[in-house]
Design a protein that fits this description.
- The two termini are 32 Å apart.
- Helix 6 packs antiparallel against helix 7.
- The longest helix is centred in the C-terminal third of the chain and has 111 residues.
- The chain is mainly alpha-helical.
- It folds into 2 domains: 109 residues, no CATH class; 162 residues.
- The chain is 87% helix and 0% strand.
């Protein structure tokens, strides 16, 4: 950008210089008299040398103001050349505005009023000051960009840690949901198991009753044996009654649990829906954040690459500018 700016400045000032030279040639009267005074001849030589120096100063100070040209170009003007000169001055003003936007430090108004074409510093010193100030600004801008890149990476690491924490919470909720589903499946099989136990106890009780009836019929034959068997049967019947009581209590608790499980199933379904919705929202937000930070990192990398390229071009620009200035100076001297 600086190279293009310098090329445009050189083209504008070279055109202004050519216009000025053409006007000067038109304004110089044709000297047919060969007996011209020596003092006048020396004076014209001095004026031409001064004009050449002014042209070289205008070419070398392409980044300075156009005050010198406004003071020197005060000769008679034709309409076409006047329009061309006005267009060139507008272009110079536009270039000065671009130069102001590039963050080149401007001098104070008091200093600008004091700087005249006579006491202005040489072009080489001003160019050196601008070149010294530009790398410092570029370093500051580069440091700011790197600092921003580091802060973005830190934010990305924080977001990754937060996303990992949310994923752990989601896995815990999924495991708890699976446990609740397993409990519900087990609750469905418990009543069937209890019914099987009740049928088994009824069959055992029926067999014991039949055995007791047979023992009562044969009581006269073996009385001591039947008595011991009857005692055992009575103990078995008591245990069976206790088991029946326990079974009834279990059935009551199971029925209450089943009645309570219906709303809990609804709550579980609502909780599953909320969890799936939260999971989808977390995934979408994570994807959006990841896309945004990737774009931001890509922009920062592009900015750093552009800065490196501009710095490389600016390091090569002074050499080409010095060569152009030397060539212009030699051309004007010749």
């Amino acid at each position: 950008m600086a190279l293009r700016y310098s090329e445009e400045c050189e083209e504008a000032y070279s055109e202004l210089l050519s216009l000025y030279e053409a006007k000067r040639q038109q304004n110089i009267p044709l000297q047919t008299d060969s007996a011209e005074p020596v003092g006048d001849r020396q004076q014209t030589d001095n004026t031409s040398a001064q004009l050449g120096k002014m042209g070289t100063e205008e070419l070398s100070t392409s980044f300075s103001t156009a005050g010198v040209t406004e003071d020197t170009l005060s000769l008679t003007r034709t309409p076409e050349k006047t329009d061309r000169e006005a267009a060139l001055r507008q272009q110079i003003k536009r270039l000065q505005k671009i130069r102001a936007d590039i963050c080149v430090p401007k001098p104070d108004p008091g200093v600008e009023s004091k700087l005249s074409p006579e006491n202005a510093p040489p072009a080489g010193t001003r160019w050196g000051q601008v070149q010294k100030e530009k790398p410092a600004d570029k370093r500051k801008e580069k440091a700011a960009v790197f600092h921003e890149l580091i802060s973005v990476r830190e934010e990305m690491s924080d977001m990754r840690a937060l996303i990992r924490l949310k994923e752990k919470e989601l896995r815990c909720l999924e495991w708890s949901l699976m446990g609740q589903k397993a409990q519900e499946a087990a609750g469905v099989f418990i009543p069937e198991r209890l019914r099987e136990e009740v049928e088994h106890q009824r069959n055992e009780q029926q067999r014991f009753c039949e055995a007791a009836a047979k023992a009562g019929c044969d009581g006269d034959v073996a009385s001591p044996l039947t008595r011991s068997i009857l005692k055992e049967l009575q103990a078995v019947l008591q245990r069976e009654q206790a088991l029946k009581k326990r079974l009834g209590m279990a059935q009551d608790s199971l029925s209450t649990a089943l009645t309570d499980s219906a709303p809990s199933r609804k709550d579980n379904a609502e909780q599953i829906a909320r969890l799936t919705q939260a999971h989808s929202k977390a995934l979408s937000s994570y994807r959006q954040i990841r896309r945004k930070y990737r774009e931001q990192v890509w922009r920062l990398e592009q900015k750093v690459a552009a800065m490196m390229e501009s710095q490389h071009n600016q390091s090569q620009a002074p050499k080409s500018a010095d060569e152009e200035l030397e060539w212009r100076r030699e051309e004007t001297i010749l």
